[in-house]
Amino acid sequence: MRQVFLPMSWLWSKQWSHPLDDLTRQLREELYTQPYSSVDFAAHRNSIHEADNYYPKTWLLNTANELLVRVWNPYLRLPSIVKRAEEWTWELIRMEDENTKYAGLGPVNNPMNMVACFIHDGPDSYSVRQHRERLNDYMWVKGEGMLANGTNGVQVWDTAFVTQAIVVAGFADEPKWRPMLTKALEFLDDHQLRENVPDQEKCYRQHRKGAWPFSTKDQGYTVSDCTAEGLRSTLQLQEMHGFPKLIPEQRLKDAVDCLLLMQNPSGGFSEYEITRASPKVEWLNAAEVFGGIMISYDHPECTTASVTALSLFSRFYPKYRADEIRAAKQKAVGYIKRVQRADGSWYGSWGICFTYAAMFALESLASVGETYETSADSRRGCDFLIEKQQADGGWGESYLSSSTHQYVQHEKSQVCHTAWSLLALMEAGYPHKEPLERGIKLLMSRQQRNGEWLQEAIEGVFNQSW
After folding, report:
1. How many angstroms separate the CA atoms of 230 and 192, rounded?
2. pLDDT mean for each 10 residues of the chain (466 residues)
3. What is the DSSP letter of 399?
4. Which among 197, 263, 272, 284 counts the fewest CB atoms within 10 Å?
5. Which of 97, 137, 225, 254 is catalytic?
């Protein structure tokens, strides 16, 4: 939210607009259902389509907006205040661009930062040229037309999980797979973040030395579970299967240091940074289409990834920060137990939705020895999943689960939800084989002759509605 509002507020303050030409005339005709000159924009300040109004503006935000429009802007917004605010906002935009090599955090602030650079630095400036190149990181074309990624890719995340899949399948020591796994390890080596941003406190950035990002080193944002999965993949390849130690011991310890700094007092782990404010600031959420975006929240997924990576690290480096790692794991599992619902489920924030969270949460419990046999919490989680198994042996969950915060069955079972549920049950040591065998048969029946599984319904989500 911070990174989106920086260029948005700066551009508004500058009151800049592109000269009216054939292109802007065509855009106005395309975007509006009536002639542009007849639109009373002030009257439509709160006109929001029902489908987009997932998180309606609160009375507090509406009141603040009215005061800004009717009192602050016309009477109190002095030129000296405007100048200071624009200079400070521009400085933050500049630091975001330099700290991400002009990739930006995501596909919303990136092009708006580019327009800000166009105005501030000029159309042929270095910053605009860099931004223009980086737009390609987000845009891609397929049958539906031009699309935009939610980030500049998922490279580190996918690489880590591919290597882990091969390792747990038992193929890591086979000569056939070693060249590919070695290249994957080289990629993880290249994209670990090795230093903090030079202006970390000034631009409100989280510690990142030792971390892995979601996508690439250029984008450069710490992500807790990406750091955890990058660490786990590295340990599996280097320590368990004898791959070259491209990432030395000190950098593994840097990753652990980074993870420990990302745990919140609650015991949970959030994604990009620790929780820095009260959830009450959500009352000022102006996005409408998203919920839970004003601060970083705890997530079972990020928490589990961090706990399991720390556990694996301690197997090979048992003396390094042992007491702190032990305490962090205990607090994390305590958080996992607290956020389990009465029906045994957990709400997931990064995949759809309860099946995704269950896979992580049950792994968290298993990592400290709490399984179906020994833990009531684990049993309730397993029982919830078994209750949702469909007649064909699979699991299928609708994206509506994420926005309604209640489990919504999909009209048919889905490969991903089935795989997540099976992994969850197996991590928990679920003792009854028949439901597992039925689910595995469903996966086998959907596999294509070339080995792949086809894309089915939407699997990922963030901010509760997208």
Report:
1. 8
2. 94 93 95 93 90 91 95 96 97 97 93 97 96 90 87 94 96 96 98 95 95 96 97 98 97 98 96 94 91 92 96 97 97 97 96 96 94 97 98 96 94 97 97 97 97 92 74
3. T
4. 284
5. 225
